[in-house]
Amino acid sequence: MIFDMKTDEKEAKSARNKTIKLTQEEVTHYGGKVVVLRDSATLEEVINRTICGDYFKIASFLPDATVDLLVLDPPYNLRKSFKGTSFKKTSEEEYTEYIESILEKVVHCLKPNASVYICGDYNSSTSIHLAAKKYLKVLNRITWQREKGRGAKANWKNCTEDIWFCAMSKNYKFRVDRVKEIRKVIAPYKEEGEPKDWIETKEGNFRLTHPSNIWTDLTIPYWSMGENTEHPTQKPEKLLAKIILASSDEGDVILDPFLGSGTTSVVAKKLNRNYIGIELDHGYAAVAEKRLEKAEKDKSIQGYEEGVFWERNTLSVRNKLRKNENELTIW
Questions:
Q1: Which of 119, 320, 314, 121 is nearest to 217 (CA)?
Q2: Structural domain that includes position 204
Q3: In this structure, what DSSP letter does residue 74 have?
Q4: pLDDT the model gives residue 326
Q5: What's the chain's average pLDDT?
Q6: Does pTM surpass 0.85?
Q7: How many domains would you assign to the chain?
């Protein structure tokens, strides 16, 4: 379980450390909100709930054709241990079979126009592609940059991960206008003295752009961020916001079978979507419930404001734009 008994040492830690930890009392409280499935369930019984259990044992209990968006972030094909669970790197063939086994059990939940995003790294990507095209229409591969990671002496530092974008059919949703990005204009071009496709402000020149499949504007959660937890592979809320805004509408149902500390469900709630989250570890499921409670009052997503995504380290610029006759809303 994840809990943090108060001690003088921990009470003295920096007030800026916003990492979400649970006391033993909170583990009991939030853990009591978690659902356990032992038989087939209706949508009403699982919607907007955190389910604790083994995905492979309970996937068949989920209702058919109810999910609009599936987010898969399974264990990567690498050696890793945390919270008493160990994973070892397997062959490409074995990992491909593992991903196939996940997809095989979940496709019955998906609507005919559902979208699917599958996370992985360079070791996992080949297997994900091979497994995905067996069950889905593969549409693209997103590569995103993460800042964390140790330097390497005998290889290039590994600081990217992949997300495979797939769909059940060609009739999938993709709302590009909801995921546009604000970028600073390096070489502003004018036509007849007027800015061409960019806007002039007191804080610099900016352009509203369409998103690509290279994402460099994400920050891995760390101790001074309110979304940070102790989960070792936590994804940024901003990353999930891009996926959810692009591939679902308000009121849609989003499923994450490897929920971790709850990011997919939390962002779905912040963006007025419904969610179903499955997590094997009861402690992480409890953390997810605490984050969901916080999301009832705090709908903010770092780097997403006024309907657009901003580059990293632009908060001070945004604050100044807000004061300058609210230039922040001119997009």
A1: 314
A2: 177-213+304-331
A3: P
A4: 65
A5: 90
A6: yes
A7: 2
